[in-house]
Amino acid sequence: MGRSSKDKRDVYYRLAKEEGWRARSAFKLMQINDEFNIFEGVTKVVDLCAAPGSWSQVLSKKLRAQKSDEEKESVKIVAVDLQAMAPLPGVIQIQGDITKLSTANKIVDHFSGEEADLVVCDGAPDVTGLHDIDEYIQAQLLLAALNITTHVLRKGGNFVAKIFRGKDVSLLYSQLRIFFPVVTISKPRSSRNSSIEAFVVCQNYSPPTGYTPTMVNPLLDHSYTDFNQLEGVNRVIVPFLACGDLSAYDSDRTYGLDIREGEEYKYLPPTQSPINPPYKSAVDLKRNDGIAKPTQSNSNSKQLDAENSDATDTVTQGVANMDI
Ligand code: SAM
User: Fold this and answer.
1) Element spanning 54, H or E
2) What is the domain extent for residue 310?
3) Ligand 1 within 6 A of 86 CB?
4) Using one digit for the tens of pLDDT, what is the confidence trace for 272-291?
5) Catalytic residue status for 44
6) Is the pLDDT at 263 greater than 60, yes or no?
7) What is the signed CA dihedral for 309, 313, 319, 322, rounded to 10 degrees?
8) Distances in Å between the alpha carbon of 77 and those of 94, 118, 248, 285?
9) Is 63 inside any structural domain?
């Protein structure tokens, strides 16, 4: 695929480069804010699963712009990810796994004596294409983020997190409602309809009376099987809201390269290349001839793979459906 065809196929990818965002996800957070006004009055925020950093860029820009140096000092943005992230102004970075107690403790340490007004989490697993596993890991990330949130969020604060609209959505919604009186599942216009991704916007943090935050809360219960367990009076209707102006670009549509009248299209490289991507070692191995060459037996298995191409299609489709 040529460079310009991705710009054509994915208008938010192109806009992200033009506006200097590290990822197209920046638009998702901005559209959520347009609908829910989550940045209002915020000076302390945690960005979980933050790499390559477009949400942190949005936070840094929205919370620090047009402020005096002194006011900027009072803004605290803590960003966490498994991956290393190129530095950003005013953003404290922690490299670690948010499901690990040690990472959670580091985040909590940064907030000693202080509380966050907002916690956001755009966490997504490296998708396998096996939907049940991907949805399960996604749910675990969301619940790990909730555990961390209960340690750092001030009462009345907000929590926004990516969720996959799979079979566990009603259960997750019910768990979040224990801590937040208002929980909405929201789909920004920049998130493709073909993707099962959405975002929970949880407002007005109000933990149950006497609740003591703990990092060892159970995550998704293995014995729970499906939403049918939330039947009858236990059944919940999950509020769903599409957000983003109707005039905003449609992420499922292919646009021409001439999206602005009278302006000539110019290819732009990505704003920030990955600094230490997981695929780097495979590329190095390939360059140095370190990857095994096909032998007679594994070329036979290649033929088998080709014959089983339906299975390959399913995996590809699974990955495409995640919109990350
Ligand atoms: N919000 C980011 C942005 O705007 O640039 C994009 C986040 S990307 C969709 C998902 C991120 O989740 C990846 O960078 C991945 O490393 C991170 N992630 C996945 N599992 C994680 C975990 N257990 N702990 C920390 N980060 C994790």
Assistant:
1) helix 54-64
2) 280-323
3) no
4) 988 887 788 888 888 888 87
5) no
6) yes
7) -170
8) 11, 10, 28, 37
9) yes
pLDDT above 90 as % of the chain: 47
Q: Determine the atom of ligand 1 nearest the C-alpha atom of 123.
A: 12
Instruction: Work out the pLDDT band at 296, boundaries 50, 70, 90.
Output: low
In a domain, 95, yes or no: yes
User: 124 CA distance to ligand 1 centroid (A)?
Assistant: 6
The active-site residue, picked from 28, 44, 76, 162, is: 162
Identify any residues that bridge with 92 across adjacent strands, giving them in sequence order: 78
Structural domain count, the chain: 2
* Atom of ligand 1 lying closest to residue 83 CA: 16
Residues 169 and 313 in one domain: no
**178 and 289 together in one domain:** no
Query: Which of 31, 82, 275 to mutate to test ligand 1, by most ligand atoms within 8 A of the CB atom?
Result: 82
- 262 occurs within a structural domain: no
The arithmetic mean of pLDDT across residues 177-188, rounded, is: 95
**Distance from residue 324's CA to the centre of ligand 1 (Å):** 9
Tokens of 77: 């943005």
pLDDT of residue 2: 64
